[in-house]
Amino acid sequence: MRLQKHLALYASCLLLCVFTAGAAAANKPGSSRAAERSNAGNRQASSSSSSSSSNVQVTKAPVQSQNAARQQQQQQQEQLQETLRSLGYADGCTPPRLPTWPVTSPKVPPLPAGRRPNFVVILADDMGWDDIGLHHPRGPDGVTSAGAQTPNIDKLIKGGMSFTNFYATPLCAMGRAELLTGRDFPRTGNLYNTRGYDAFHLGEATAGDVMQQAGYVTAHYGKWHNGQALGYEPWWRGFNESWLPTDYIHLDNLMRHNGRYVQTQGMMEQVLVDNMAGFLQQRGEDGKPFFVYYAPYAIHKNAKQPKSKVNPYFTPEPYLSRVQALQPPPDEHNAQVWAMLLYIDDVLGRLFEAVAASGLADSTYILLTADNGPALPREFISNEALRLTRMPSGMVGDKNIFNENLGSSGTEGALRNHLAISGPGVPSGAVDDTLLSLADVLPTIAELGNARDTRHMPWSGISFANLLKPGGKATKEQQERFMFTLVASGDKRQCPQLVQMMREMLPDVGPNREVLRPQPMLAYTNKTGGNNLKDCIVGRWKEYKWYGCSGRVFRFANGSHIELPCNEVTGAQQRTIAAAFDKQARQWWASVVAEPHSFTKQTFQLGLGGWRASNVEASGAFEISRGKVLITKPANFTAVGGNICIKVNVVTPGRYLVAAMYKSAFIRGLEADFSLTVGSHSQMQSSAAAKKSATLPALRSEEDRKRSYVLGYLDLPRSGSSGSSSSTEVCFKLERLRNTTAAAATQGISTLSTPPAGWYFYLANLRFVLQEGNASRSSLDLGEDLGADEEGVFGSEDAFEDFEDAILALSYTVTDAEESCPQGISYRAEKDRALLFGGVYSACASGCQPRNDEWSQGCNPSSQPNPFRGYAVCHPSQTAAVEQGLSKLPAFADMQDFSPCQLYSYLQGRTLWVMGDSLMRNYYYALRCFMLDFWDHAKGECAPSSNERILRSIYKSADTNITSSMGSRAITDVPRCVHLIGGGRICWVQSVRGEEFATPNPQDPGILQRLQHTVADKDDIFLLNFGRWHYTNCRGLEAEGYRQALKEVGELYQKTRSEFPNWLFKTSTHDHTACREGKRHEVTDQCIPAVEGGYPASLGQRINSIAESILGSYSVPILDTYQPTIAMHEGHILYPPPRSTVRDCLHYCSPGIPEFEMFMMARAFVTNGIKPLGKRDSTSSLQCLPVTEFRPPAGWSYYLDMISRNQSAASPAMAGVHAAIDVQQQQQLLEPELQEQVL
């Protein structure tokens, strides 16, 4: 459905805009082909229009057959392709028709002899060749870009020089390593983005090091991704000034300035440029030459947010609105990418202005490129027409994506990139096709800045300073060079040998504990002559491209870099050229393997520069027990005897407190014994190394898994000191698994040789904290910098002891979750039912609330039908379908272990306000049942206050719906709460429409405002949702009123967050409800599949995207649960319940979707800094007014279905809770407005 939406949007909008441009394009030279296609396109547009008209009628009938849908999709794709051709997009092997501009003399004259230039090098993130406005054909007006809009980058290109044969690398970390070192990234120790190969060796000189040696002041701003351990950050690697943000946090970023944390305000890239402007101003005043390395995070999508995120790009206003206003309007993906692109283009414009304002523009080179190609959504990769809208060049592939046709991820779309440079003596508007790479940048800067005679490893790159002047010509070396790269990929099909080496093997090491060179694992070909790592190499030479995996050769001419058969070289010519490539690639690879730093991992520094704490990353292991450990991002121990060894350099000797940071499965009775050994290899062989052993408990909750377990203290000498080897190693080993249950002891199987099914252990870090020695600083990332001053410096030994106590407090030592539960409550494990998905009712072992009262019976998952209104029970097959769908999520194991005890720790002592429509009502009932043993059944359900005036004011704010155009449809519930034992409560406030939450009118406050001024406490948590508008249903969701309501909620949050900080806005789950001609369609007895309903995923994504965009601009925390519920919804379709049990197939039954969202809420507490309050009795003493004693004014009544009426008649207690005013009273006039002030 999403693909069809993309196609339909482009086919209709592009046709309308292109062909209304009339004959203007037809009169241009060479336009006969375009005109011919234009006429054909017009005919197709007419057909499309009538087809679209008929489609509106078809929605009333059953869904079209799959064949008809595919045929329609094919027609739309062909229609879009035809339209793109007419605009000048690539067609087959014909490159796109792009604008041209004149070449003129340099805008900035060459520098006089003796004056040193300055440099600003910009390395964008995921910004491919096609992500530049000048690389798109012109739109219908013949002037502006038909796609990406980058006016400031365009100006840089036209005012300087650009290169069309420039190559980056497959992924982020590799590109940065290559640019910073001037060397092919595999030579440096960098191989990949993760698995411990993202950094490069400390023996490699960076651009910062080189330019510092030449007398330059150096500065870094933005992304790094070449090592995050102590000693590998930019302030250790040649940069006098460094501002390193927290990854992908685009608003109010917590940055590190030269290693010290600084909380910033505003948009991250603008903050960085503002800091750069200050740096430039200083250089303008002191006259010192400078080198700036700016690495923005744009246009990379947010890698830290859940995959379910609707809009993964940062698209602040007004950029998104400006892009959406383009004609033709872009599709959803392009709108998001181009909005972020327009944002960073604006930021770059500010940077260019800052250079000019510093007075140094006449001496400053500005260079812009990127690390790798673009990232495309799956539907763009598989559909040529959609791909062309983003990549008009017609190049194949994108970053790190395996192309099945080519058998590689080393495509032009992944590797070819842009390079633009302006500065002294650079001709304006010049375009050059010399073959260049990221490795050429540092040698070029060094030549221009007279920094060639500096200490560094031999550069792979070649300076292109000779090209940066009028009439510059490529040297013979540049013309004849062979250029190769390693295309490591996360896809095993691309380079299985390298993936296996990084994940399962690691290179063999010799007696000196260094990588053996050569060795079979690193060979170009295997013993039989077949490909080994040759599979991972691609090359360029002159106009040719070669794939080592297949030997295929392509020829790029006339600007066409399109890897299709029409550009492929075949026959004898292919064999000759492939043989030349093969010979050169074999020599190149042999030189890579012979490099002293290639294939090495990091050496972690302990006590460097006086810093106390160091994280030793498990992925940095240089040796593992093959078959027993896997290196993913952490180290995954899969068998007893699994061992990893990591290199460290003990800079400051002394006593170190060592803690393990890990994640493990909880299996009752199973204990894992580990050993930690630190010393030289010879000391380990002779059992002379320092050693600690510990039993590491399973960590059940997500909160627990962010903690450390203290292993103990180790006294470590300085590496290389007398009596020890120069190489210190840290080895961590799974010694044994023990079954401590009584049954195991009886049967004599207390020690296990293999782990049981479901067991796992992932080691993330070993944290070393210096207790004694000369250190005085600590780089902390375990939460707060306890005992530290504003700069992170420990002021006294007492302060450090506070930090040590904090680590000990973070050690999880409770082996059974029930030990942390109050009132003696405990649960026994059930084989087939997790506590979260209905197990609470049957698995309580002690301390349970009664199971025979009506409150508990309403939570009985075996009840069919359920007697308790509001808690409709899912059919068992529905719950099973939900769990099956969730099992694909990484967090599913955590859900299986999730306990009410964990959630209770957050709810104790505060009120959780659950606020929203019917979806949230069932969420409240499901939450109440999950916490069945933690609320006081004797009190039943209580109103939020005993003051009826307050209750009426809250009720009034929550019921604007009755006066809306929906007429007499009243809200279905009055506000109600359950009180938790030991303090705390869960309260529900029904609110159908977003306008009810917050209003700018102090005379008519919204629900949140009334709660904040009456019964809410500063520590309370507000969980909000108004994803469905309930007014003309789906269409109303996109109305301006929806946006306005979101803005008012955001504004209220900003005004009150200092007093009421704990807010979460939960995005809506996917919905089954069908929309018919924009009107509301009531729930039917049979579920409507998502693919057939009028509320498709694309609409839900757009709705939630609006909420995330608007509320995100106000920093309102978002709880995103939308995307996973699409699969859950389909699970409900597959297993419809009996008609008499539940009518709504998605969010009106439990256990299922509400429980999943409950778990996600608990995780959001952690990620948003909402902390347990501990034992507080702040709410348990509140007077409790039973819900039955509160009556809304006449005419404001409950809305009850027939099942609840029947149950009310049969159950007096339930009748009291769910009593209804006679239906006739709904026709009575509303009583006059309550003229009462908020108390």
What does the model show?
By secondary structure, this protein is of the alpha/beta class. Helix content is 31%, strand content 16%. The protein is built from 34 helices and 41 strands. The strands form eight sheets. Strands 1, 2, 3, 4, 5, 6, 7, 8, 9, 10 and 11 form an eleven-stranded mixed sheet that branches. Strands 17, 19, 22, 24, 25, 27 and 28 form a seven-stranded mixed sheet that branches. 51% of the residues are buried. Residues 1-63, 773-819, 865-870, 961-971, 1029-1036, 1072-1094, 1131-1145 and 1193-1239 have low confidence and may be disordered. Residues 27-81 are annotated as: Disordered. This is Sulfatase N-terminal domain-containing protein.
